[in-house]
């Protein structure tokens, strides 16, 4: 059968149309055949979100951002986006802008409300989640946090210095009590050795928390801010402990020496390089540590209570 | 001397005006329309797709070469190659090929018809030669160019993707992920508008050159060259104007 | 009835037609003779509006074709069949399709009717077997004859022949002359024959018009032509008589 020109041309045009429509839908992150569902959200800050950025639910791409405009009336950022029709976005769902603006990898994370709640109608408004820019929050509070940390370190430093002077004075009380302390120190050694297993378990615990942090981070924006507050109080407490610490002169001297040699619990925490790297390498890790603090502050404070022994 | 281009523009617009006037007489050009769609569109598919595949592949390799940094995710290659193809290369590569292939052919065809009095013969029969010869060619250009553009973009992206994958630059999945991340829905619409304008520009200019040929075989040669060159020049101009106005 | 009034035409500042006048009566066969480059073909193209005069008017059946809109002009042109000097066959179509083209385009005849008429026309020009051949596969004379078949296919009221017999052997020339004559006689076609073949002129024409250097030098009947003592015309006729051995 000879295919007529009309047929060939027609088929080609149809083929191109299909490729065009499917191609555009594919790149637009629309499902190739199903229809989508338009929603809106309002943010104080779009965090670098642009049309085309992905919308994810539980880490799965389900749609993309259509528009990002600043509303004339409210001054807020209005974000229009679409998701697959089979994603049921119910009342109580909220959206958060996540990702790192500088790398261009910004996205909209959608957290679905309870399945039993009524569905948000087409074109409806999804609540913005609090702490929309988590990393922004973290970096905003970072200077304050570092001030506190360095305050604590300063404290440690002065204590050490004090201990040093005390030790260098031959007639000091400290010197005289040294010998009597030696036995106590031996005892302490034993105690610390027995304590080592516990320290290790804490370390591994911290590690596992770090591992699972990424997921926790997006979901718990709110919680993280609480953690930030907690960190503040914890550090204040630590500060207070240090103040007390400096007043306990005699035994502290020995302990500090040992701590410096990396034998004590707190010493491990300070000197352990892996721990240090974890804290340094990612803000996430800091956060995980904080989360652990937050989830069971007593554990850490309990460790610190060791200090009180002396 | 300076007036010549203006005069040419006037003649060109006049020709378009007559072509537009002949548009309702579908009967005069129906058969020719299908034939021209075949020649301009379908017959150009292989060469257009070949060129597009290569330009996609080259874009991928070049992008990969320029972005050797562990800080930049490899998916960026997809985010660059796909919009390049959709926005610019798909339409422009097709345009240049058709300016040579289709533009020259139209001008040679119409030019020969002019110098051998075939156009006069059509007119003498009472046929609208513009409607019969030019309208189907320009229409075929307007309709088939976007089709070729889609084919070129599709094949170009495919070519870039495959070279990226098998050349070890970026796996297909990451390529597509990068492309989807930064996809602007207006891009393909813009490309489509562009290809439409290119299709019109190339075919109408070539028809103009061919239809107004004079001076025998030499004249046909002159028209053919002029048609190809003018098509390319005005294609670039149209590209710039469209980018400046629509983007 | 075609009348040409005071036509002037120049190309790029070079004038080719000077104040040309000519009247062609209904049913007559008008020969236009003149030397090569005298402007015969240009005049012919003016008559069907393919060229616009710089000044002057051409009327066909009382309609001034230089002022009517294009759509009207095309209606007037449908009354014409034109044989161009170079044949002007559509080289994208074979001989059959060339002859069938006006039939298909302007009539609603069935395929079998078209076929029959095309074969009849090709038969008239003694080329019944060339239907499948492309114009490029035909000799110059054959192309001319197929073009003639195309020009007469619609049985128009006016037929313009631009050198219908040039490039043909004497025998075929005679056949073409007979064809022109029979069309004129049987269908009352008004014919305009541009030629420099005096033999044809004497054979088929009622009247002759002699163009010399772009001017209508002489017009009259064939009898007048013989009797004329115009030196330029005599020279032109003489040159032909020697050729045809009258
Ligand atoms: N389209 C054109 N552009 C410029 N000059 C033209 C054009 N057509 C014809 N001429 C000029 O007009 C003059 C008359 O040409 P025309 O074709 O009418 O001659 P002719 O009498 O038909 O000669 P022949 O018997 O050789 O066909 C010639 O000098 C030719 O150069
Ligand atoms: Mg001539």
Quick tags:
heterotrimer; B: 247 residues; mainly alpha; 9 helices; C: 246 residues; alpha/beta; Rossmann fold; six-stranded mixed sheet; four-stranded antiparallel sheet; 10 strands; globular; binds adenosine-5'-triphosphate; binds magnesium ion
How would you characterize this protein structure?
Chain A has 310 residues and is an alpha/beta fold. Helices cover 59% and strands 16% of the residues of chain A. Chain A has 10 helices and 7 strands. In chain A, helix 5 (221-247) runs parallel beside helix 10 (297-309), helix 8 (273-281) crosses helix 9 (283-295) and helix 9 (283-295) crosses helix 10. With 247 residues, chain B is mostly helical. Chain B has one domain (45-246). Chain B is 85% helix and 0% strand. Chain C has one domain (25-52, 65-239): P-loop containing nucleotide triphosphate hydrolases (Rossmann fold). Chain C has a 6-stranded mixed beta sheet with strand order 6-7-8-3-9-10, sandwiched between helices. In chain C, strands 2-1-4-5 form a 4-stranded antiparallel beta sheet, covered by helices on one side. In chain C, a hairpin with a 2-residue loop joins strand 1 and strand 2 (14-24). In chain C, helix 3 packs parallel to helix 5 and helix 4 packs across helix 5 (140-152). The chains are: A alpha/beta (310), B mainly alpha (247), C alpha/beta (246). The A-B interface holds A 4-6, 8-9, 12-13, 16-17, 19-20, 23-24, 26-29, 51-54, 61, 64, 66, 103-105 and B 34-35, 37-38, 41-42, 45, 73, 82, 143-144, 146-147, 150-151, 153-154, 179-185, 188, 192.
Q: Please identify the structural class of chain A as seen in this structure.
A: alpha/beta
Shape of chain A: elongated
Residue stretches of chain A low in confidence (pLDDT < 50, at least 5 long) are 212-221, 274-283, 302-310
Give the CATH level 1 class of the domain at 34-130 in chain A: Mainly Beta
Please, how many domains of chain B? 1
- The total of helices of chain A stands at 10
User: By helix and strand content of chain B, what is the structural category?
Assistant: mainly alpha
Total strand count of chain A, please?
7
Associated small molecules: adenosine-5'-triphosphate, magnesium ion
CATH fold node name of the domain at 34-130 in chain A: Elongation Factor Tu (Ef-tu), domain 3
Q: What string gives the helices and strands of chain B in order?
A: HHHHHHHHH
Number of helices in the DSSP assignment of chain B: 9
Strand content of chain A: 15-25%
The strand order across the widest sheet of chain A is 1-4-3-2-6-5-7
Distance between the termini of chain B: 36 Å
| Main β sheet profile of chain B | none
């Amino acid at each position: 059968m000879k295919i007529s020109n009309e047929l060939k041309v027609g088929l080609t045009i149809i083929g191109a149309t299909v490729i065009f429509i499917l191609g555009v839908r594919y790149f637009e992150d629309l499902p190739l055949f199903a229809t989508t569902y338009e929603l809106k959200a309002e943010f104080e800050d779009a965090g670098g979100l642009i049309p085309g950025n992905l919308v994810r639910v539980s880490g799965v791409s389900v749609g993309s951002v259509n528009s990002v405009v600043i509303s004339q009336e409210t001054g807020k950022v209005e974000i229009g986006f679409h998701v697959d029709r089979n994603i049921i976005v119910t009342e109580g769902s909220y959206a958060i802008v996540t990702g790192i603006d500088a790398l261009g990898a910004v996205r909209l994370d959608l957290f679905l409300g309870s399945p039993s709640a009524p569905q948000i109608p087409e074109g409806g408004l999804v609540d913005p989640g609090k702490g929309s820019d988590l990393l922004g929050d973290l970096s905003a509070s970072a200077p304050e946090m570092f001030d506190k940390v360095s305050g604590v370190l300063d404290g440690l430093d002065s204590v050490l210095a004090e201990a040093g002077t005390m030790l260098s004075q031959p007639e000091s009380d400290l010197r005289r009590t040294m010998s009597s302390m030696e036995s106590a120190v031996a005892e302490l050694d034993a105690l610390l050795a027995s304590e080592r297993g516990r320290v290790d378990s804490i370390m591994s615990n911290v590690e596992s928390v770090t591992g699972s942090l990424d997921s926790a981070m997006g979901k718990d924006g709110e919680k993280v801010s609480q953690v930030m507050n907690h960190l503040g109080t914890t550090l204040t407490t630590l500060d207070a402990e240090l103040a007390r610490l400096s007043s306990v002169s005699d035994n502290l001297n020995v302990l500090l020496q040992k701590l410096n040699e990396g034998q004590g619990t707190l010493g491990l925490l300070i000197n352990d390089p892996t721990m240090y790297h974890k804290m340094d390498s990612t803000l996430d890790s800091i956060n995980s540590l904080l989360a652990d603090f937050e989830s069971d502050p007593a554990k850490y404070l309990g460790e610190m209570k060791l200090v009180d022994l002396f | 001397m300076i007036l010549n281009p203006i005069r040419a523009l006037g003649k060109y617009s006049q020709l378009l005006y007559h072509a537009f006037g002949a548009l309702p007489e579908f009967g005069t050009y129906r058969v020719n329309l299908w034939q021209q769609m075949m020649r301009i569109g379908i017959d150009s598919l292989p060469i257009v797709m070949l060129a597009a595949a290569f330009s996609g592949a080259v874009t991928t390799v070049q992008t990969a070469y320029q972005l050797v940094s562990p800080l930049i995710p490899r998916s960026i290659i997809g985010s660059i190659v796909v919009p390049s193809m959709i926005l610019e290369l798909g339409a422009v590569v097709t345009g240049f090929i058709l300016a040579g292939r289709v533009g020259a052919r139209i001008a040679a065809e119409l030019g020969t018809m002019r110098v051998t009095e075939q156009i006069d013969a059509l007119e003498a029969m009472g046929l609208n030669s513009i409607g019969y010869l030019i309208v189907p060619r320009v229409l075929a250009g307007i309709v088939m160019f976007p089709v070729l553009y889609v084919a070129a973009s599709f094949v170009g992206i495919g070519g870039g993707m495959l070279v990226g994958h098998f050349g070890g630059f970026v796996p297909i999945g990451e390529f597509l992920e990068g492309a989807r991340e930064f996809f602007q829905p207006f891009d393909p619409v813009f490309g489509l508008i562009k290809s439409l304008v290119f299709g019109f520009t190339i075919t109408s200019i070539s028809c103009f050159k061919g239809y107004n040929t004079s001076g025998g075989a030499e004249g046909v040669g002159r028209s053919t060259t002029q048609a190809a060159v003018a098509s390319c020049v005005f294609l670039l101009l149209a590209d710039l104007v469209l980018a400046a106005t629509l983007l | 009835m075609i009348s040409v009034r005071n036509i002037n035409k120049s190309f790029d500042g070079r004038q080719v037609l000077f104040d040309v006048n000519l009247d062609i009566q209904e049913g007559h066969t008008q020969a236009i003779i003149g030397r090569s480059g005298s402007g015969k073909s240009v005049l012919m193209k003016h008559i069907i509006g393919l060229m616009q005069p710089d000044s002057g008017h051409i009327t066909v059946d009382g309609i001034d074709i230089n002022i009517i809109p294009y759509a009207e002009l095309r209606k007037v042109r449908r009354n014409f069949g034109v044989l161009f000097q170079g044949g002007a066959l559509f080289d994208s179509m074979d001989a059959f399709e060339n002859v069938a083209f006006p039939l298909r385009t302007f009539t609603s005849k069935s395929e079998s009717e078209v076929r029959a008429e095309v074969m009849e026309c090709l038969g008239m020009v003694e080329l019944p077997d060339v239907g499948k051949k492309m114009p490029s596969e035909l000799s110059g004379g054959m192309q001319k004859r197929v073009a003639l078949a195309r020009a007469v296919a619609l049985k128009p009221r006016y037929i313009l022949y631009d050198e219908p017999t040039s490039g043909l052997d004497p025998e075929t020339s005679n056949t073409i002359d007979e064809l022109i004559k029979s069309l004129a006689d049987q269908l009352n076609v008004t014919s305009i024959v541009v030629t420099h073949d005096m033999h044809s002129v004497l054979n088929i024409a009622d009247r002759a018009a002699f163009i010399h250097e772009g001017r209508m030098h002489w017009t009259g009947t064939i009898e007048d032509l013989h009797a004329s003592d115009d030196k330029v015309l005599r020279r032109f006729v003489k040159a032909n008589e020697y050729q045809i051995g009258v």
